[in-house]
Amino acid sequence: MAGTADQLPTRRPGGRTARVRAQILAATVELVARNGIAGFRYEEVAELAGVHKTSVYRNWADREELVVEALLQYVDDLGSVADTGDLRRDLVDFLMVLSEGLGRPTVRALEQATQATHESPAVRRAATRIFEERAAAMRRRIELAMARGELPPVDYSLFGEMISGPVHLIVNRGLRPFTRADAERIVDLVLAGVRATTPHT
């Protein structure tokens, strides 16, 4: 089958313009976010994208290939962890990017895709890989912080959950906007907790 998490779909030369492709990919993400993989239809993609359905079929003969490419196209919505040399600022910036991304259809589509265990295993693998890549980026940044003495030894997965968990809670509740002050408080509390619970030798 074309387009899997291990064999990323390649862009075909010629054909539709970059603008049309972008419209189709954006429409795909929105529909998967709204209806899940099971409710995904080429005709709806074409209508939402404002193109003829043959434009979709001609560029993506396989439905899963289209969904995988659409998800990978918008992977930056999840955010990454920069390395400016200032751990606190890097984590605060990451939380701000993450909070903005959580409000976009991309993340909802990814969450839908990770649940598509039966109808679209290839899409689920791609979505899982994207989340794993974000976790790996956090791990690399924490490793650098430990090597520089900014952090004591810490469990990468737990640290990432402590940092990002409150963001998901605030954004998903939708009761108020997530602010930079929120991000700073979260980062300060987590960093203080990690440092305070490190055994002294």
Task: Explain briefly what this protein structure is.
With 201 residues, this protein is mostly helical. Helices cover 66% and strands 0% of the residues.
Count up the domains: 2
What is the total tally of β strands?
0
The CATH topology of the largest domain is given as: Tetracycline Repressor, domain 2
What's the pLDDT, averaged over the residues? 81
Q: So, CATH architecture of the largest domain?
A: Orthogonal Bundle
Compute the gyration radius: what is it?
Answer: 19 Å
Order of helices and strands: HHHHHHHHH
Structural class: mainly alpha
Domain HTH tetR-type: 18-78
DNA-binding region: 41-60
InterPro entries: Homeodomain-like_sf, HTH-type_TetR-like_transc_reg, HTH_TetR, Tet_transcr_reg_TetR-rel_C_sf, TetR_C
Protein name: AcrR family transcriptional regulator
Describe this structure as you would to a colleague.
The protein is mainly alpha-helical and 201 residues long. It folds into two domains: 18-73, Orthogonal Bundle (Arc Repressor Mutant, subunit A), CATH 1.10.10.60; 76-196, Orthogonal Bundle (Tetracycline Repressor, domain 2), CATH 1.10.357. It has nine helices and no strands. Helix 2 crosses helix 3 and helix 8 runs antiparallel to helix 9. It is elongated. It starts with 17 loop residues before the first helix and ends in a 5-residue tail after the last helix. The model is unreliable at 1-16 (pLDDT under 50).
List keywords for this structure.
HTH_TetR; AcrR family transcriptional regulator; single chain; Homeodomain-like_sf; DNA-binding; Tetracycline Repressor, domain 2; Arc Repressor Mutant, subunit A
